[in-house]
Specification:
This protein has an 8-stranded mixed β-sheet with strand order 3-2-1-4-5-8-9-10, sandwiched between helices. Strands 6-7 form a two-stranded antiparallel sheet. α4 crosses α5 (84-91). The chain contains 11 helices and 10 strands. The chain is of the alpha/beta class.
Length: 232
C-alpha cells in the first residue's frame, strides 16, 4: 500500500516509521522539503530535527504535500490541527478525491497559552471541517486520543484499552480498522462511533488527556471503555 503521511513532527515520523516497518511504501509530506531538511535545531517539544530522523529512515521519502498526496493510495493527516486545512489544500483536492484520509490531528488552540483550548469545539470538529472541505475524500478520524507511541504500539499500555473511529464511509472505516490491527490493536478494542460528527466527542477528550498527562508525567496511558457492545 502507498501511504502519504502529512506532517514531519513526532506524530508523523512515528506513524511513517511504523508503516514503513510493515512493508508499505511511505512518503512524508511537508510544505517545503528543502527548508524542512535544513533545520538543525530541535522542535518546540525537544525532538531532534527532521533531517536526523530521516537519515535513519532512508526508505521514507520526503515530498511536498501535493506530491505526497498524489503518490498515495491512503493519506494520513498528522499536521498541527490549526494548520491542517491549509496543508490539505496544499495537497490538493484532486489528490485526495476517492482516497481514505485518516485524520489524527486535534484542533488545539494555544493562543491563550497553556493548557490549550479547542477550536472548533462542541458544535463542530476538525474532522467535520476536513470532510466538508474535501467532500470526495473518505475522512476517518482515529488515534487522536493517545500519545503517538501508543498509536503504533498499543502494548505500551497494560491491559485492555480503546481506539475510536469516526467517519461517513463504512468501507473506509473497515480499511482503517484493518490498519489498526496491523499496528497491534485487537479488533475488540476498536469502537466505531458512527459518522464524522462523532469526531466532536473524541476531539473533546483532549483537555482531559492533557490534564492526565500533566498529572501522570508521561503519555503511556489510554482510555478504556468497558461494557456490552450493541447486539451482545
Amino acid at each position: 500500500m502507498r501511504y502519504a503521511v502529512l506532517g514531519t513532527g513526532i506524530v508523523g515520523r512515528t506513524i511513517a516509521g511504523k508503516l514503513a516497518s510493515l512493508g508499505h511504501d511511505v512518503v512524508i509530506g511537508t510544505r517545503d522539503p528543502g527548508a524542512t531538511l535544513a533545520r538543525t535545531e530541535p522542535d518546540g517539544m525537544g525532538n531532534p530535527p527532521f533531517a536526523q530522523w530521516h537519515a535513519e529512515h532512508g526508505q521514507v521519502r520526503l515530498e511536498t504535500f501535493e506530491a505526497a498526496a498524489a503518490f498515495a493510495e491512503t493519506v494520513v493527516n498528522t499536521t498541527a490541527g490549526g494548520q491542517s486545512l491549509n496543508a490539505l489544500h496544499a495537497a490538493g483536492a484532486p489528490n485526495l478525491s476517492g482516497k481514505v484520509l485518516i485524520d489524527v490531528a486535534n484542533p488545539l488552540d494555544f493562543s491563550a497559552g497553556m493548557p490549550p483550548t479547542l477550536d472548533p469545539v462542541d458544535t463542530d470538529s476538525l474532522g467535520e471541517r476536513i470532510q466538508r472541505a474535501f467532500p470526495e475524500a473518505k475522512v476517518v478520524k482515529t488515534l487522536n486520543t493517545m500519545n503517538c507511541f501508543v498509536m503504533v504500539d498499543p502494548a505500551r499500555v497494560a491491559g485492555e484499552h480503546t481506539v475510536f473511529v469516526s467517519g461517513d464511509d463504512t468501507g473506509a472505516k473497515k480499511s482503517v480498522t484493518a490498519l489498526l490491527g496491523s499496528f497491534g490493536w485487537p479488533e475488540a478494542s476498536v469502537i466505531d462511533l458512527g459518522d464524522i460528527t462523532s469526531a466532536r466527542g473524541v476531539e473533546m477528550l483532549l483537555p482531559i488527556w492533557l490534564r492526565l498527562y500533566g498529572t501522570l508525567g508521561h503519555g503511556d496511558f489510554n482510555f478504556h471503555i468497558q461494557g456490552a457492545r450493541p447486539g451482545a
